[in-house]
Amino acid sequence: REEMNEIFADVASITGNKKYLELARRFSHKTLLEPLIVGEDHLTGMHANTQIPKVIGYKRIADLTQNDAWDQAARFFWNTVVNHRSVCIGGNSVREHFHPADNFASMLNDIQGPETCNTYNMLRLTKMLFQTSPDIRFADYYERALYNHILASQQPVKGGFVYFTPMRSGHYRVYSQPETSMWCCVGSGLENHTKYGEFIYAHAEDTLYVNLFIPSRLTWKEKKLTLIQESRFPDEEQIRFRIEKSNKKALSLKLRYPSWAKGASVSVNGKMQNINAQPGEYLTIRRKWKAGDEITLNLPMQVTLEQIPDQEHFYAFMYGPIVLASPTGTENMNGLYADDSRGGHIAAGPRLPLQTMPVMVGDKNDILSHLKKVEGKPLTFTLTGVYPERYEGMIVEPFFRLYECRYMVYWPVLSKQ
Questions:
Q1: Which helix (H) or strand (E) holds 208?
Q2: What's the pTM?
Q3: Closest CA to 167 of 92, 72, 73
Q4: What pLDDT digit, counting tens, does each position of 372-411 carry?
Q5: Which end of the chain has less Cβ packing within 10 Å, N or C?
């Protein structure tokens, strides 16, 4: 959805008529805006995807009027939602509303988890913030939400889009059907899966940013540059770039060194380059590029544990930026493909008792040693030391590859005492 303040700001930009900017300001909801300007989070209880488009509008107006206060309000909102109100997949909200930032119990218990539309709009806001200050934090979040929520919100064989992605262990997602379902998350869903090329690259004057590691071909007409990116990311750690066409003028190539990567290396035409950045920064290579130049970027990936934001004893497994999850069965997935009922988008089948779900027992600092890689299957692991014993050796793999099944994203980790 778009908010009226963004629409009128767009009209002002298109027409050059400032009266539409005044309209945009008048349609800007002050109850949300004013606390954000002074750095106060009053979001609890608010309908999440009503607020995100308003903030997109604040940012659009700020860009057109150089309003630093409104720009800062948008940044504060983004930081609050991303770092304090989102789960590991990059999504937010329960039953469409922001729950308390210090209590994620409803997120772990409810079947109406993060809404796809919310993440669609958070990515729009992220792109706008990046355009005026290319901070790698925006690219890191964009990657996480894209791979773990947006990519996972589509049924990859039959088609269909997801409204809610429950974080409740042992539950499942419902998929839309062409003749029965036209929810908001179908409208944004139709856009989501056409936009995988949108944020891969960015440019500023004579600088090219590489934000995402997605096979692609870039034609930068103004600089007469054509660049090819090849990779099997995230299944492989190596990303290869090839200059197919260049005007032989000096350009800076900024390769994202993600926060999750440690010990990156980069070579140009086989010659190793000095690493001039830390994780969470851009690696910069400046030179006169010529056709045939090859750049190889290696980004070591490892498994990490990520605690749920309210610091309770629930953890997710990450492999680099990829959320790992476990399929837990396919029984009684009522309404897996939605009918035309008012609640057809909700996975209303039996809720499996949480006390029967797997738990990890031991020191959280030792849990990663329980994951064993499965040979021949990229990003697939078995998990040992799980209780009850029937779950011993359960498979853990990228969440975006799981569909038409019940699943588990967060594991309780309990001490032996």
A1: strand 207-210
A2: 0.96
A3: 92
A4: 999 999 899 999 989 999 999 999 999 999 999 999 999 9
A5: C
